[in-house]
């Protein structure tokens, strides 16, 4: 199941633990980065935040770019154990 399928939002959530009608910071971040794993509630909340802070999407992209640079630097220093859950 993907957020873009034609089933209802409640059905797409697939679990009682996931509330697709409540914004999630992680899915809002995904939306700000131009990702596809977000739902209408996440997009609406992110758009409301963007109305207050127009540079929010730029900040999210810069944050991701820093993460990539930091991981590349660490790997270049010989660190070879990473938590792969952090990678997009």
Characterization of this structure:
The protein has one domain. The protein has helices at 9-13, 25-32, 40-52, 56-76. The model has no long low-confidence stretch (mean pLDDT 85). By secondary structure, the protein is mainly α. Helix 2 packs across helix 3. The two termini are 18 Å apart. The chain contains four helices and no strands.
Mean pLDDT: 85
Percent helix range: 40-55%
Low-confidence stretches: none
Order of helices and strands: HHHH
Strand % is under 5%
Task: Assign an overall shape.
Answer: flat
Backbone structural class: mainly alpha
Number of helices: 4
Largest sheet: none
Tell me how many strands there are: 0
Overall tally of domains: 1
> How far apart are the first and last residues' alpha carbons, in Å?
18 Å
Name some characteristics of this structure:
single chain, 88 residues, mainly alpha, 53% helix, flat
Topology (elements, then pairings):
Layout: H1 9-13, H2 25-32, H3 40-52, H4 56-76
Helix pairs in contact: 2-3
State the gist of this model:
With 88 residues, the chain is an all-alpha fold.
């Amino acid at each position: 199941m993907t957020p873009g399928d034609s089933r209802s939002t409640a059905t797409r959530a697939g679990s009682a633990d996931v509330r697709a009608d409540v914004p999630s910071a992680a899915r809002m971040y995904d939306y700000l980065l131009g990702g596809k794993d977000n739902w209408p509630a996440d997009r609406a909340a992110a758009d409301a935040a963007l109305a207050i802070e127009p540079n929010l999407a730029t900040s999210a992209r810069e944050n991701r770019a820093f993460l990539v640079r930091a991981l590349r630097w660490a790997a270049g220093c010989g660190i070879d154990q990473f938590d792969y859950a952090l990678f997009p």
